[in-house]
Amino acid sequence: MRIEYTDHRSDPGGWARELGISREAVELYLQSDVIDLHIDSYIWHRIGGYDLRQRHGHGLFGARFYSQVDFPRLLEAGVTGATWVITTNPLRSREERPEVFARNLAELKELFAGVSEQFAVVRNAAEYRAAKAAGKHGAFLGVQGGNAFDRDIEALEAIPEELLRVTLVHLSTSRLGVTSSPLARVAGGDGGLTHLGRAMVEQLNAKKIFVDLAHISRKGFFDALAVHDRSQPVLVSHTGIAGVHEHWRNLTDAQVLAVAELGGTIGIMYQSSFLGDSPLGGRLASIVDHMAHVIRLVGDDHVSLGSDWDGAILPPRDLPTCLELPRIVEEMLRRGWSTERIQKVLGGNALRTIEALRG
């Protein structure tokens, strides 16, 4: 199957006029690697039959909660790479989860195989670059919710090495550790990572799969780093920054410094309330505010895109879908950011971090 879409490289000025921004912003965007560390659109395929191969509009809620990404719009938006995640259902029994995950992984790969002229599943920076050179989107694979594998040590040992990253926890506390979500109840323990959670960190390190520290409690975050192989970078795929807006979902400055110390990167997400805006009236400038705080703290090598598209988020109203992404570049240019810095944030930092771990 070949997907039809508008290739804006043929008329960057027209796209600029459509978005109400400068041609300079669009041209810089189109010249860049654009890599998103967290796209959650597959979950809507699983629970609602959302066909990723078909072009959608803004859905029932005006691109709120879902219908922010599909394959045609992603190609049109010029997103050259992304991590496509399989989110674990915490209500499913522990015994079932590894087998259900395996089926979901096979199905997601089958979706990409069906559009292989324009998408390629990739595992490292070299494979991503080859895909991009062939005019394809490089699709990395990830897991949101390490409780997909918390049945026992054998399940941890069977985590497939083709995965780029695994978040240790998601919105629920599991046998691995405690989530940052206030909905979680800690039954005993110290609010951090468990013995099995530490074993997972060691397994992921051994397989050169990123330990993704999005969603974990602040104590669990540092528990994970205490056993993490310090020769490997660490990842936070989608988050906000507490130094801009204090929130249970956001990283403190100490956490940002710890990620940078290991050479990792932090994806800034697009959920308006986490950024400090009204849920229904967010602005993309707030995304750049959070990026700017990371840059002030640790320099411009450690911040990336981590949208959480289709992860039931309420994105900024001037960035409702992936099609408006060049507006972020316009905001960066307005603040006087250099071409080098902008290209690092759009994809260079993600690619450097992936290459450092996996080649």
Rg result: 19 Å
Supply the helix-strand structural class. alpha/beta
List low-confidence stretches.
none
When the domains are counted, the total is 1
The CATH architecture category equals Alpha-Beta Barrel
Give the strand content.
5-15%
Series of H and E elements: HHEHHEHEHEHEHEHEEHEHHEHH
Average pLDDT, rounded to a whole number, is 96
Task: Give the CA-based shape.
Answer: globular
Sheet with the most strands, sense and barrel status: 6 strands, parallel
Q: Termini distance? A: 30 Å
Tally of separate helices: 14
Oligomer: single chain
Helix fraction? 25-40%
Highest-level CATH class: Alpha Beta
CATH evolutionary superfamily = Metal-dependent hydrolases
CATH fold naming: TIM Barrel
How many DSSP-defined strands? 10
Helix-strand layout with pairing:
Blueprint: H1 12-19, H2 23-30, E1 35-39, H3 42-48, H4 71-76, E2 81-87, H5 97-113, E3 119-121, H6 125-133, E4 137-144, H7 153-157, E5 165-167, H8 195-207, E6 210-212, H9 218-227, E7 235-241, E8 250-251, H10 253-261, E9 265-268, H11 272-275, H12 284-298, E10 303-305, H13 326-334, H14 339-358
